[in-house]
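Note to self: keep these together.
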Amino acid sequence: MTDILDHWVSGSTWAGTATRTAPVYDPARGIVRREVRLATAADVDAVVAAASEAWQDWRDASIARRTAVMFAFRELLNARKDELAHILTAEHGKVLSDAHGEIARGMEVVEFACGLGHLTKGAYSDNASGGVDVYTLRQSLGVVGIISPFNFPAMVPLWFFSVAIAAGNAVVLKPSEKDPTAANWLAALMREAGLPDGVFNVVHGDKEAVDALLVHPDVRAISFVGSTPIAQYVYETATGQGKRVQAFGGAKNHMLVLPDADLDLVADAAVNAGFGSAGERCMAVSVVLAVDSVADDLVDKVRERMATLRTGDGLRGCDMGPLITGAHRDRVASYIDRAPADGATVVVDGRGVEADGDPDGFWLGPTLIDRVPTTSSVYRDEIFGPVLSIVRVSGYEEGLEVINASPYGNGTAIFTNDGGAARRFQRDAQVGMIGINVPIPVPVAYHSFGGWKASHFGDAKAYGPHGFDFFTSEKAITSRWLDPSHGGLNLGFPQHD
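Structure:
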């Protein structure tokens, strides 16, 4: 009998009322690992009600108590990260070392959230007017919804729920139905750390569950990561209901290589950033803009490095694992099919890879496509797989023009030894996160993550200072405590003394 993953509500598993389920695959073996329940709108209502009840007490929990829970959670997560990494590899397919990297980046945000006492305090102005003090409070919102993607089943939830819970909110997490087990594991660990039941809940599902969260009157805010069309839908639907929304969409991240760059460093960076996690990263480098004079040499160096990569089961010490599903693998491979018709050259074709793993796994090897026209769908679309495109440009100006013409604006990088060019690039590139000789410029936890243009809908970025701003409301208080000598009537407009 196939195992079924239930929801996690009020500190324990809950089957709900739904009869629908979805398969959860082991992508390295091509088999169904388990089923996951798909919630109805009524199930979502029940979960939100449980979260609302729990929030009534959690919002009044002292800063000391909330801090203690977050510290305890951090220690438990660090002690048991191997267990979580194996869950990620089993359901997503990323290699074990990459799974550990994902957990480490998520843990950075947990550590940042442990500073909630400093990050949630207000300001105080003594004697702003005669005998009048003005100060601000930061208070939690209530129940917040988190809708996370398949590519980072631990890190992205950690980015959001760590801050939301530390700030005093209750959370309903809707993880991807493709790799949902990590969400339950994290929720159980938060309970073990001392979090009261009902403050962190997990509801599994598909569009029905998502839509129910977006329109539920008791859900005050939505955090989302996914494709651009869905991010826009989430943003427009939830803001139409008066909710706060931070919705992070897709990307087409470029890496501009100038002639003075260290090409060995560039080739290493391109391979690492293009094929890590099988290219299933919103911050993956998918386009290398190579200046003509160095393009041939760079393509050779990238190809040489790609020849050393081992694709296979993430538990076997390979460099790159499978894609998340067979359907996604086939979609990514279709771009390799059409590249020659668009005038591009397939330099390394990953469709025939000999993987170190079960032959039924969802394999696609690292792929390099040169001379990709910017009119090609290989360039335009977010492929979300191990396909690296080389677009040749005449120089800095054309490279910058290509980047700024993209509808996406998540991350970009420049590789150069020219400080002037780098400084100009960081100012002129119309992208939210910039790397200078750094291929994947994801900010550390005490800054904030987020792109521009079609890569980000909403004003608040993820984690960092923006995270606590997003998950709290500021209240301003103007206070006067009258002494016994005060008295008399004055109907005029209040004046400063």
